[in-house]
Amino acid sequence: MNQTVLSARIAEAAALRYTPAGLPAIDLRLEHESELVEAGQTRQVKLELKAVAFGTAAETLVRQAIGSEFRFTGFLAAPRNGKHPVLHIQSFQQDTFS
């Protein structure tokens, strides 16, 4: 199963675009910071991740402020010409990084 849940803030958002099929789409850059326990040790985790949303999710995300925090749910896929994964956002909700 390929399902990802990530609490992150919107760091960058491109302009709303449309796919050849006419679906609204938006490309985002998300930032995440947290402190986790791994093998009994506290670890600081920071990452940046490219993301994309389509349809009504894209139309809603384009109206959100940079720095807004959400819990994103989706799946990871590599773009056709890239090596790094992209989060394909299927849903999201306000998050407080609890």
Automatic annotation (TrEMBL):
Q: Which GO terms describe its cellular component?
A: primosome complex
One Gene Ontology BP term is:
DNA replication, synthesis of primer
| Keywords noted in UniProt | DNA replication, DNA-binding, Primosome
Q: Write out the GO MF terms.
A: single-stranded DNA binding
Domain of life where this protein originates: Bacteria
Q: Does the keyword Acyltransferase apply?
A: no
- Whom does it interact with, and what assembly results? Homodimer. Interacts with PriA and DnaT. Component of the replication restart primosome. Primosome assembly occurs via a 'hand-off' mechanism. PriA binds to replication forks, subsequently PriB then DnaT bind; DnaT then displaces ssDNA to generate the helicase loading substrate.
Q: Which family does it belong to?
A: Belongs to the PriB family.
The protein's job, in short, is: Involved in the restart of stalled replication forks, which reloads the replicative helicase on sites other than the origin of replication; the PriA-PriB pathway is the major replication restart pathway. During primosome assembly it facilitates complex formation between PriA and DnaT on DNA; stabilizes PriA on DNA. Stimulates the DNA unwinding activity of PriA helicase.
Q: Please report the name of this protein according to its UniProt entry.
A: Replication restart protein PriB
